[in-house]
Amino acid sequence: MHAISKELSPVNGCNGIEVLEADTFELHCFQALTGMAQKIFVAAEPGTPGIDSLLKTVYELYTDYVLKNPFYEVEMPIRCELWDLNLALAVRRDGKTGLTGR
């Protein structure tokens, strides 16, 4: 979806979809400036504050607990207890503002 939107955009220099807004939810997408292949998505209720901050927090957790894990291979499922724990804490912390999941 992200790559297709870059190709179909009538705007030159488009970086792809950042937010997909629907009546009942918003789907936010984060791609690091480093151009990492993985995208981070968060689904939230419309108008939920702090999503950008949460996306950056999740990216920081990803770099700290996944990319630095010598046993992790890109494109493989993430199996790291510290990642799971810290991701759940970050979502719970922001869950008070209306997040619908991780």
What is the helical fraction, as a range of percent? 25-40%
List SSEs in N-to-C order.
HEEEHH
Number of helices: 3
- Report the count of strand segments: 3
Largest sheet: 3 strands, antiparallel
Task: Walk me through the structure.
Keywords: Endoplasmic reticulum, ER-Golgi transport, Golgi apparatus, Transport. It is found in: Endoplasmic reticulum; Golgi apparatus, cis-Golgi network; Golgi apparatus. Belongs to the TRAPP small subunits family. TRAPPC4 subfamily. Part of the multisubunit transport protein particle (TRAPP) complex. Residues 97-102 have low confidence and may be disordered. The longest helix is centred in the middle third of the chain and has 17 residues, at 51-67. The chain has 102 residues and is α+β, with helices and mostly antiparallel strands. The protein is 38% helix and 13% strand. The protein has a single domain (1-98), classed as Beta-Lactamase, CATH 3.30.450. The chain is globular and about 40 Å long.
SSE layout and pairings?
Blueprint: H1 2-8, E1 19-21, E2 26-30, E3 40-44, H2 51-67, H3 81-95
Antiparallel strand pairs: 1-2, 2-3
Helix pairs in contact: 2-3
